[in-house]
Amino acid sequence: MTKYNSTIDRPASRRSVLKTAGAAAGLLAMPSILRAAEGDTIKIGFHSALTGLETLLGETQVNCFEMAIDEINAGGGAGGREIEYLVEDNQTTTRGAIDKTRKFILEDEVDVIIGMITSLERSAALSVSAPARKLVIYPTYYEGGECERYLACTGQIPNQSVDPFVPWITENVGKSVYILGSDYGWPQETAKAISAAFEANGGSTVGTEFFPFGVQDLGPAMDRIRAAKPDVVWELFAGADALTFLKQYNSFKPGGTLLTNGLDELFTTAVDGSNVEGVIVNQSYFSSLQSPANETFLKAYKDRFGQDRWVNSIAESTYIAAHLYAKAVDKAGSADTEKVIDAMAGISFEAPQGPVTFDGSNNHLAVNSIIGRCRNDGLYDIIENFGAITPSVPGCNLA
């Protein structure tokens, strides 16, 4: 394996709204970037939040990406060709995602781009990559709704997380929900799905609030939760803001059972156990899953990165993304973007979370939906596993 250099420093910024369609369209005038050279190697560009609000997630994500590439190369490569890769830090910003995507396509001439955490990174990258007809594989759970030939998604969307989770909640926990989160696309759209699911299951939403990145004082919001008396509080904060919320929620104790589809081991092992014990979470993967595939995966990860390290669902989905791409190259017999996209349909992989299958009708993955209850050590006891759920993107038909 050849690892190219990159710019991985660390601290940060963030925000959104894209104004780069014109610049991205200019890529179409450059035919050399629209086809992968069929040389001796395949080149992958990986960029993600290695500094900024989501650093905690990005570092583990790149670890799993690199581990997957090494496994693929050790097994003979993708389509018999060695994979080279470049890693870049997009700094958890719209500008960074645009710049790194443009660099990968124009300067590095990569065959595919993998990575990113937030929806704003994904949208920014797509404003460049889709006009250039370059495949991006996005591994993070998100609000759903993308229907794009040049985008493949390997994380949960609401019909795989919210829709199975809410009926369980209304039956086992309560029927009224107060939703709080960061002020951007993923929390806003996910909140709509949560409210719709509660209403469909005889419940109600008694409050919804969004906060700017870097929020420090959530005391007034805690008072509003206490006054509303919800059965459950659903948090959707991004990155380090989730840690702020957890600490203040535990300090104010406003009432309601805390749950989410946005926390994982990386967050809950980073704070005192009293802040997170009992939190109920839905994800596609937990490190505590008991299966031969996960035991092998975790052992390899810990042997490489440290026995005290854990993997979350985003990192595991990134691991899947790399293997999925390699299997598509094998199937296509080529790294040509159009052939690889066509070949992805129907590909299955025995992932650490369990078997997963790619749906070519909407370019999303059938992933698992698992409920875990957080322990005092920040890890999760599995309390329900719905298995792999077919992704639903209404109105999308890419087949």
Explain this structure to me?
Helices cover 37% and strands 22% of the residues. The chain folds into two domains: 233 residues, Rossmann fold (3-Layer(aba) Sandwich); 99 residues, Response regulator (Rossmann fold). Helix 4 links the parallel strand 4 and strand 5. Helix 3 runs parallel beside helix 4 and helix 5 packs across helix 6. Strands 7, 8, 9, 10, 11, 12, 13, 14 and 15 form a nine-stranded mixed beta sheet that branches. Strands 1-3-2-4-5-6 form a six-stranded parallel beta sheet, sandwiched between helices.
Keywords for this entry:
399 residues, 6-stranded parallel beta sheet, Rossmann fold, 22% strand, 2 domains, 9-stranded mixed beta sheet, globular, single chain, 12 helices, alpha/beta
Mean pLDDT: 91
Structure class? alpha/beta
Instruction: Estimate the global geometry from the Cα principal axes.
Output: globular
Number of E-state strands: 15
Main sheet makeup: 9 strands, mixed
Strand content: 15-25%
What is the CATH first-level class name of the largest domain?
Alpha Beta
SSE blueprint:
Blueprint (H helix, E strand, L loop, with lengths): L1 E2 L17 H5 L15 E8 L6 H20 L7 E8 L4 H14 L4 E4 L3 H11 L6 E3 L12 E3 L8 H11 L3 E7 L2 H16 L3 E8 L7 H10 L3 E5 L3 H13 L4 E4 L4 H4 L11 E4 L8 H14 L7 H20 L4 H8 L3 E4 L2 E6 L4 E11 L5 E10 L10
Parallel strand pairs: 1-3, 2-3, 2-4, 4-5, 5-6, 7-8, 7-9, 9-10, 10-11
Antiparallel strand pairs: 11-14, 12-13, 13-14, 14-15
Helix pairs in contact: 2-11, 3-4, 5-6, 11-12
